[in-house]
Write a structure and sequence with these properties.
47 helices; elongated; five-stranded mixed beta sheet
Amino acid sequence: MAAAAGVRVLPASPNWYSSRCSDASSDGRLFGFAARHRVCLLDVGGGAAAPAFYGELIGHTDRISGFAFCHCPGQSGLCASSSDDGSVKIWDTEALAPVGEYSLHQNAISALHWSPLVKDLIVSGDEKGIIVCYWHNRSDSQQFFPEPRTIFCLTCSPHHENLVAIGYRDGMVVIIDISRKREVLHRLRGHDDEIHCLAWCPVPGEERLPAWQDELQVPSEEGKVPNGELTQDTTTKKGCYLASGSKDQTIRIWSCTRGRSVMTLKLPPTKRRGGAVDPAVKERIWLTVHWPSGRSTEIVSSCFGGELLLWDLTQSGKRKWTLLGSSEGQNHSRIVFNLCSVKRQDKELLFSISMDRDVKCWDLSTLNCSWTMPSLGGFVYSLAFSPVDTGCLAIGVGDSMIRVWNTLSMNNIYDVKTFWQSIKSKVTALSWHPTKEGCLAFGTDDGKVGIFDTFSSSAKNKPPQISSTYHKKTVYTLAWGPPTPPLSSGGEGEQPSVTLYSCAGEGIVFQHNPWKLNGEANDINKVIRDTNSIKHKLPARTEISWKPDGKLLALGNEDGSIEIFQAPELKLLCTIQQHHKLINAIRWHHEHGSQPELSYLIASGSINATIYVHNLKSVVESTSESPLTITEPFRTLAGHTAKITSLSWSPHHEGRLVSACYDGTAQVWDVMKEEPLCNYRGHQGRLLSVQWSPVDSDSVYTGADDFSVHKWHISKQEHTRPPQGKKSIELEKKRSMQPKVKTKKKKKPIGKSPAKQDLSDAVNGDESAKEMLLEENGVSDHEGEKEAQEAELPDKVSVTVSKDTSTSAYDYSSFLPKPFVTQKATPVKKDPPKEKPTPDASLKKRKPRSILPFSTFMDHRSKDELHQDCLRLATCLKTKDNNEDVSPDLKDRIHLGLFTDRASLHKMIDVEGKHHLENGHPELFQQLMLWKGDMKGVLQAAAERGELTDQLVAISPMVGYQAWVWTVEAFAKQLCFQEQYVKAASHLLSIHKVCEAVELLKVNHFYREAIVIAKARLRPEDPILRDLYTSWAALLEKDGHYSMAAKCYLGASSPYDAVKVLAKKGDVTSLKTAAELALISGEEKLSATLSFRCAQDLLLSRNWVGAQEVLQQHKTLFGQRLVFCLNELLCKCLSERNPCDRKSPVPPCYHSWELNREASFFEMVTEVWQNVLGMDTTEQATCAQEQLRSIEHPPSTSNTHPKQVLFHISHDLTLAALSYQTATWDEAVKSILGAVTRSYDAGSFTLMQEICSIILPEGCDNLRHKLDSTNSQSMNACRSLEGFMAYGLLYDLWWNAPKDSLVLPKAVLDPVLCPSEQTALEKSYISGQSSSEETPDQAAVEMDENLCNTTEVRRCETESDSRTSSVDLVDSQSKLNGCEVLLSEEIAALQNTQRDIAEVQQILADMIHQHQQQRNNLQENTNGSTQESNLQQNSETESDKPCSDSNQMNCKDEVKEPITLPELTKQLLKAKQKLAEFPDNLKVFPFPDVLECCLVLLHIGSQCPPELHEQALDLLRKHGSTNTYKKAGRRFLT
């Protein structure tokens, strides 16, 4: 047993990402953890003292995913492990042997536990959610499937033998009872990510803790459990708490009886302390929990960076947790995966395994780390003892880290420092500086060479120096030696005393200057060539070794030769031609023996298993000028059965050597006697490195591909020589149990079994990228490359042979007896290749399929058959000679046609062709027919079957021009079926069918390609081209690609269409571009229209600057420029008068014009026109006036957009301003009136007031004097204008009247509304709601117009309005007198008549509408629904006039009898005649509603002069016949 033999081991690293892959035995003696596919056992019986290596459990062939000891009394030696190979094994640790095994899972096993109560029950769970319970004493099993989810962990209860808690990948926790049919007791939901660990409270019962009260305010009914009532006290006795740790960074404590969480602990953000981890590596969290035995209130858990926390469940808040490991460096530096504890006398010890590859033991009483056991995560490639710091061993490992082990440390036998900075790959070579302490050179798998300072105190995190010269392949060896040219040329102090030499897989040795690693390294082959004037190619170097005194350099080569050079010029002394395979190791004997001549001994090992020792004393002393060749060894050490990887001379003896070998053993030799002394077989893999201990002559250190370093004693080994025959087969078997892995692609196929390594992500988790390298591949030692090159030798022959035959066998299996292969492929090597040739090799050079397989096959039959062939052939040829005409009869031996006449050959070709067709290789058949010269048939057959190919088309011309044209057409058709239209068109072009090609593309909508061909091949005026453009344009236009369509129209030279299609989108940029395009194309008029549209759009977004830019391109739009200019100034004025509170989404873009604020509005405008737009002369003015007069704008209504209204008003005012300039006053009045009435029609009362006060601030008198009093029309216009101004004033006076003068209390005011058109007035009176005529959008116009509804009235009452500050009575009365204009008798009569007409017309319209509806209803259905709709309508018409309290009485009288049609027409005629009697000049211009004004005057009350009051009443009585006015005036008239 290992422990007995005193072996000290640095073991393989524990597996990662497994919920339970380590455990301690219940007697506290052993701690075991899964490392790859083995279990490593440590003897921890010494308590706080460092552990000893106890042994390994070997047997699984794949990564171990779970491991647990049996914790039942008397069975502490039993344990179980589950593996990715699908099996669970039960082990006896005393014998280190399996005692049982079962494979009941179909999927990867992810969790395993040995029941603490039932001594033979093992419970395991897999990735698909299946639980297997196995009782190993009676080999009985049972399966459960509680949830179809991936199991992450499971734990059997220590108090109830049937309870098992299971944690799943998605955060669910389930408790099952394995004795019941419906197994699930509780589904515990709360976590929302992977459950990493579950731990039962070691103390039964659910005692409440003070800190938990808050979470457990349980109403009594929560005491219920599935099997009936439980009183509170039984709960506390019977139940048991369960703790779970999850990736969601919380720990939850669950109550088993209640089935709910009673406490949640959130991981605190602890500070990382001295973590040896690359900051670039993002780490996932792993939260494992452990409930130490006998402590119901304390839990240990892992945390973010590798810290461990002890939680006190009785405390709350910050005091809840304590950090384990008080001093620096005690903690793990990466996440912790497993925790388990063991009681020893008074102490409780806790074991932890972590991603940092350390196993730690903690004392739970002091919370300090008792010991740390480092472990290795890769092959051990290199071992090196420091020549200066005795006992300091550097270890180069495949996990990209260097370990420096102080093997002499007294207080800590595992005193190991780790170096990882800047190493991004496996560490394959190490060498200590011969004199400088702590200077360690390393080389890596990716060709990097660097130097670490391991000694300085800050070295822990100090990155190494890296040489700027990289090797192309793996670094094999490093050696410090004296400088050679060009470095040796400097003076004494100018160059280093030793330089670093590195040799790597590409066969080159570099010399690096340690003082200037960033400089260029030198290839020593250059010096060797110069010194020895060598012309031929130098061999590839694979090993380098300096004699300790620095005088001689030995280079080992790939061809097996060893060359000895003299320093410093590197003169070649001799070549040793002994090995014939690649050299792996060369070592010079040490200098300090009693026999100095021994220092000339040089030992070497190669891929051949024999070690040779040569004595070079005579060579060095020889005086020969030319180099010697040595072919006889001094000593031969034979016995190993595989390649030698490393050698080491004993520093304590003379002529004693230890060798490491791929046969899995290390061998100590007495060189002088050629005697094997001792053989060490403790490793479970191939040995890669060996070093003799510098302090203990009985100790040797070895490293292997089992991820471990062993220190063993020579005197304690039972074997003396390497295993031969059976034993070596057993060892081979042991090694082959390692999991297989796909070989990496090597340059050449290697006929070796692949390295059996574990690449599973789970071993090395998220490092997989880094660690893919680490897990070795191919020939998996640092000689991998060496071997690849060496495979050139006979070995390679066997590979190629077997490769060929296997491919041919595969090809013709359809008619091929298998056995014939064996004859050809007898492997040359005694060790046949274990697997098919590496797949990549066969992919790379796959032999092409034979064209004549049948004949080839017939020529590979048995010797007898072949002899028969010769005889038959001779007979046939003989008969042929005798009888010229008869074709020889070959019977079934068709293949002999090759050697007879043409007819037989044709027969043979036909047979071969038939085979090709049957096996689905028409292309080979076609090739044969081409050889035969029968192409026409092939082409026709292929065309019929739609199997024409490019190749067939290419060779069709050999049949003739017609055949070629025909083939190409057939191929084009075939391509169309396959929807390869473009290719088809290209083929049609090849036979000059241009139009057909274009048409084909056009029909299938490949317009772009069609146009290219048409333009390139046809005449420019060809109508096809224009047709293509227009068809494509139409398609593009339909899909909304307007600019593309426009390009097409331009291509088809119809710019007008291009402009039209561009303008289609109608946004500003499109319109602008379209206008410019129209201008370029000479479409002046169209361009002007588009520019104007564009300007209007810009106006809507308040961009006057842009609008003017667009307009100024066209002379015809000069008038519009004036309008836009006036519009801008008007908007500016309005926004200044009513600053808007709301920020508009688009800020206005005004011109920065100088404005004369003193002058009147029109004067200001004219000034800008003259200064900016250059309108100086009256001619220009009249011209502009004519331009504008020709434009008619439709009348505004309440639905017109406010900005539109404002634009139309600007148009009217522009005309007025122009009339002012040309002094045509009659026109001016009409234009101003037009502007005012437009705002009135639009229902924007405030706008009307604003315009009156901006344009005529002084009233109309000024204007009236200028008019021609004989022109009745202009006088009427003026009167109308005065009327509207008075109308505005009237409302102003009413809304801003002093409070006391109002007649009615506020409540009655509600129905009075804002003035507007009559219809609006009527509507609002009828429905009793105020009608706000202005939409909210209008408020966003430049002026914040007051919303004229009743709330507005109130607002105006409370705040005095800005325009008329509280008006005192006298002033207002004088103003009211000005309103007399409004009370015109004749206009009142006219308006009344118009109202009558409107009313009759409305009734008529309603009747028609009703009649239509009835007809429709009758058509739709004739089953009585008409009455319903009638009813509905009646009810609707009535409900249109709801009765407010004030007129409840009269409501009944108002429902009149229906009027007949004749009566109505009569009424209409009468009214129309009455209308005709009024003079025309009254009807031309609009006027405010006279009766409305009367009502307002009456409402104003006490302010109103009595004579006006009378006049108003009078008018109301006379003309207020319509319902609306009757109702409104009722309170004044009664």
